[in-house]
């Protein structure tokens, strides 16, 4: 292929690429449409936040109700759960710290 044919091929490819770009160019949205979409998005987010807040409040109410009921009705079970939490919580915290340390790329060394 000589230099002239190469230039013609390149110019032909550029023209075809411009045609493709023009065919797939998205139509710009008007200000009104953008504002309407933004308002719809904000409304959907507000509804989602309200649902999440409602779920949180119901969950908190159920947990606190169970907590109070168990502490009044079955104090032995309540004290057992509290003791287990008191013992397991520090162990879980240490385990999580160790896991994060090894996940950050540090080498874990077991000392004898």
Notes on the protein architecture:
Keywords: Membrane, Transmembrane, Transmembrane helix. It holds the Pfam family DUF5345. InterPro entries: DUF5345 (IPR035238). This is Negative regulator YxlC. The chain contains three helices and no strands. It has 112 residues and is mainly α. The protein has a domain at 28-103.
Can you tag this structure with a few keywords?
mainly alpha
Secondary structure: elements and pairs:
Elements: H1 3-23, H2 31-73, H3 75-103
Distance between the termini: 74 Å
Strand percentage lies at under 5%
**Structural class, from secondary structure content?**
mainly alpha
Please summarize the sheet with the most strands: none
Summed over residues and divided by their number, the pLDDT gives a mean of 86
Low-pLDDT stretches are: none
Question: Helix tally?
Answer: 3
Order of helices and strands: HHH
The percent of residues in helical segments reads over 70%
**General shape:** elongated
Number of strands: 0
- Radius of gyration over alpha carbons? 32 Å
Question: Concise description?
Answer:
83% of the residues lie in helices and 0% in strands.
């Amino acid at each position: 292929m000589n230099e002239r044919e190469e230039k013609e091929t390149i110019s032909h490819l550029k023209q075809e690429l411009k045609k493709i770009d023009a065919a797939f160019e998205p139509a710009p949205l008007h200000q009104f449409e953008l504002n309407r979409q933004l308002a719809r998005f904000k409304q959907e987010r507000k509804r989602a936040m309200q649902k999440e807040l409602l779920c949180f409040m119901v969950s908190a109410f159920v947990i606190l109700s169970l907590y109070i009921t168990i502490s009044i009705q079955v104090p032995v079970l309540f004290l057992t759960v509290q003791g287990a939490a008191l013992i397991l919580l520090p162990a879980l915290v240490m385990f999580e710290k160790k896991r994060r340390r090894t996940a950050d790329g540090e080498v874990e060394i077991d000392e004898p």
